[in-house]
Amino acid sequence: MTDTAIKPAPINHWLNGKLTPGTSGRSARVFNPATGEVQGLVDLASVEEIGAAVEAATAAAARWRTVPLSRRAEIMFRFRALLDAGRDDLARILTREHGKVHADALGEIARGIENVDFACGIPNLLKGGYSEGASTGVDVYSIQQPLGVVAGITPFNFPAMVPLWMIANALACGNAFILKPSEKDPSASLFIADLLQRAGLPDGVFTVIHGDKVAVDAILEHPGIAAVSFVGSTPIARYIYRKGTEHGKRVQALGGAKNHMLVLPDADVSMAADAAVSAAYGSAGERCMAISVVLAVGDVADELVDAIASRLPALKVGPGSDAANEMGPLISREHRDKVAGYIGSAAGQGAKIVVDGREQQFAGNGFFLGVSLLDHVTPDMDAYRDEIFGPVLCVVRVPSYEAGLKLINDNEFGNGTAIFTRDGGAARQFQFDCQVGMVGVNVPIPVPVAYYSFGGWKASLFGDTHMYGPDGIKFYTRTKVITSRWPDPASSRVDLGFPQNR
């Protein structure tokens, strides 16, 4: 079926509590990755449309910050209930626009709901400190206040979860939020917007503005936006951080990853193989916490590679609309072809292709690629150096724990890592030694629970705070310290000396 065989549906902005058609005259095609069909045309905002959105959000923020914490929490609880009730409908949107299978989509939504759970505790999370009698007749206390209008720029690979990482805390803290989702799969953001309105969020407090680089730059440059959160590739994260901070904004920008799983000779090989397959190929490898490199120490390598390879023929790859499938397509034809190119380049540079995903055949015009396993990969190969972001797992053979650790620490990225071993001492040493932000011990995808915070080190993070959890509350508020005295007027006098606390 060709792109012209179906009529693409318009995908509009969400402004002031309703769907609003764009006025820029520009749009982008939204594909169904499983069929290759164009199913939507998403509006792309102009600079002027960003300005109008900020103006509306600014007015809404002034009112929203005065809403009592108990009322904000009540809205978050209602939103959480609606999100829970609508998770199947939202999952179908993710499958249709992103391509992930239904079970994977439900898992993404579940992790997003955890962040709403955390934000429901906002009355407790925003408690300040109080010191009575810091000096004679003087009390000192701190309060956390919202920033005003904040924005989020989110990636295609988690169109529901990553926005929820940002939205829940930002709104609960009293900010107005402008979301610029990926133009590749934008409809999940509109579903969330509708639920927030039904939960009682006032119009204008949450905005969805679709767009490309024009919209991104307008967000980064607009003086009315106080802070920007971003998740995406490292080159873009670096750009977002530099440009945003140049314009006086608070910025947290999460970048790319090259996550290693270190498997020691004493590891349970069956468990490690299951973990490697799950972590490498889930969501077609399109996630920043995917394991893309297995570091096999010593004699475990042959057995481990055989164990991983033996599991791959059983993986069911196909449209996410079929509940029997475990992995769906990649997001676009161009990305699929780019990922496939790494398989060929690895072979040309000396790697052994154990399983070649390019050989698997799929009916139709979807953006499918089978799973690939590459052995004898070395650190100088493109498949090792680059973030492939697809269903390709590289095995690097190393002689020792120390050699594996060195590769992890020398890598430019420091997002996530894991160690598989039965040795508690080795695991404890690893968590101490590795220069990575999120560490798993016999856990291949160590995504923190919502009451901790998500974020890497090195080129995987630009900014001073991680995403969601306690760092999220910190990022979306600023602290004000009040020093107060209520003295007897008769004791008042002029004192030009530096204030004393005794």
From TrEMBL:
Quote the EC number: 1.2.1.27
Signal peptide stretch = none
Q: Please report the stretch or stretches of sequence annotated as the Aldehyde dehydrogenase domain.
A: 24-482
Please list the GO biological process terms of this entry: L-valine catabolic process; thymine catabolic process
- The lineage's top-level taxon is Bacteria
Using the UniProt record, name the top-level EC class of this enzyme in a single word.
oxidoreductase
One GO molecular function term of this record is: methylmalonate-semialdehyde dehydrogenase (acylating, NAD) activity
Statement: the UniProt record of this protein carries the keyword Oxidoreductase: yes
In terms of InterPro entries, this protein maps to: Ald_DH/histidinol_DH, Ald_DH_C, Ald_DH_CS_CYS, Ald_DH_N, Aldehyde_DH_dom, MeMal-semiAld_DH
Q: Which Pfam families match?
A: Aldedh
Q: Which PROSITE patterns match?
A: ALDEHYDE_DEHYDR_CYS
- Keyword tags: NAD, Oxidoreductase
NCBIfam families on file: MMSDH
Indicate what this protein is called per its UniProt record. Answer: methylmalonate-semialdehyde dehydrogenase (CoA acylating)
Protein species of origin: Deinococcus aquiradiocola
